[in-house]
Amino acid sequence: MNDSTTDHRLLEGKAVIVTGAGGGVGYGIAMAMALHGADVVVAARRPDNGEPAVQQINDAGGLAVFFRCDVTQRESIEATVAFTVDTFGRLDCVVHNAVSAVGPPTEIQDIEPDLWQGMVASAVRASFDCAQVAFPHLKAAHGSYILITSATGIEGSPYLPVYGMVKAAQRGFGKSLAREWGPEGIRVNLIGPVAMTPALEVAYQANPVLEARLVKRTPLQRVGDPATDIGPAAVFFASDLARFVAGQTLIVDGGGFMGL
């Protein structure tokens, strides 16, 4: 990240968990938060991407540690939260970003049960489990909970119907949670990103015209960077700058979706 973006370390002294932070958007958010002074737990299912992510963050001047977490298993989430509190003495923010493989564009009648069940477990059930497990610590810190959703959950998709469904469910849950937790001093918000990730690179390879189409429909004429474009939105929501923002979905996609 450009040094000018971290002249004021907005998250100094805060402890943060980012799920699915071994790569892509989760990694970008973890990097941005760490460079803004947060102590970051990179919660990822695979050590072979989680540990290199931590090394890269620490090499860049942040502070991050890896903890293996499978968000489809509640006991794994419980262990991650306990590790964070034991290590840093507090928990100020949870960013739930992890989601199982979306798969190629597929019509609803052709979707395999494993794909459907995986997305429900990682996006919907894990959003609930992360919230319930982290609640007492976020309440004590007057912290924040951030869900990574998608514009697909707002406008739908003709070829990713299950993805649209689980992302819409996250929005509904996030809004309800913002109302319930607001009186407890916890802010809940959502981010809908479009950024260059390993999954998008695979999609480009499968569909050579996808990149040109995506850029053409984006007013800013590019695809976002996970650390420098998406990460700052999460930093904002987790920081005191967003102390009066709750229940909102911020679409960070260069203007491709303007339906809010």
| Whole-number mean pLDDT | 93
Tell me the helix content: 40-55%
Question: Would you count the extended β strands for me?
Answer: 7
Beta-strand level of the residues, as a percent range?
5-15%
Number of distinct helices:
9
Q: State the separation between the terminal residues, measured CA to CA.
A: 29 Å
Basic shape: globular
- Largest sheet properties: 7 strands, parallel
Query: What string, H for helix and E for strand, traces the elements in order?
Result: EHEHEHEHEHHEHHHE
Radius of gyration from the CA trace? 17 Å
Secondary structural class: alpha/beta
Poorly predicted parts: none
Describe this structure in words.
There is one protein chain. With 260 residues, the protein is of the alpha/beta class. The chain is built from nine helices and seven strands; from the N terminus they run βαβαβαβαβααβαααβ. Helix 3 runs parallel beside helix 4. The radius of gyration is 17 Å and the shape is globular.
Task: List the main descriptive attributes of the protein structure presented here.
260 residues, 7-stranded parallel sheet
